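Page 37, continued from 36.
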């Protein structure tokens, strides 16, 4: 996705709304700031993951497996939790298995079901990455008070609730209109 380096000033959005009445300047301003911030944050963490020679997708798989580190998880469940296709998850697990971070296990009596589990190497890798990862998150969020963090979570939850509304192919209805 192409993003602007600088978010347009509110006045510019207000002027644009004269030509496009469906543009809500304050909604667009908030949306562009949300996108800009998420892009910057992902970029900063991409550098951390690159230093550890792991992609975001593979890191997400390790984090999901680390939620219950001694448990094996169905590959299909991992795909659902990561919101990727099973084929994509298979590719991620292939690479993680090749690197020795996970191992596959077949379900007894059903070869169609594949479980995935962290290996000792996977645990060791995460033990080396997570302290720095968690410190960077603390630095990122340190300018917000505990109350502001809770407010941010609540506000982002409201935005997440609206996502299905914009995924429908019909024009979504704006609240209050």
């Amino acid at each position: 996705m192409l993003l602007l380096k600088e978010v347009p000033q509110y006045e510019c959005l207000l002027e644009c709304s004269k030509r496009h009445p469906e543009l809500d300047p304050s909604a667009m301003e908030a949306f562009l700031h949300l996108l800009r911030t998420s892009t910057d944050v992902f970029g900063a963490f991409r550098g951390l993951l690159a230093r550890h020679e792991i992609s975001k997708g593979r890191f997400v798989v390790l984090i999901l497996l680390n939620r219950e580190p001694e448990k094996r998880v169905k590959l299909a469940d991992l795909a659902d939790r990561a919101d990727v296709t099973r084929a994509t998850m298979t590719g991620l697990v292939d690479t993680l298995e090749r690197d020795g971070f996970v191992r596959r296990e077949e379900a007894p009596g059903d070869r169609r079901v594949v479980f995935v589990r962290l290996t000792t190497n996977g645990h060791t890798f995460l033990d080396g990455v997570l302290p720095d990862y968690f410190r960077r998150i603390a630095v990122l969020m340190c300018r917000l008070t505990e109350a502001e963090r809770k407010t941010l979570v609540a506000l982002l939850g409201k935005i997440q609730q609206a996502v299905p509304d914009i995924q429908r192919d019909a024009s979504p209805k704006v609240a209050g209109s």
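The radius of gyration is 21 Å. Flag for discussion at group meeting. The mean pLDDT is 90.
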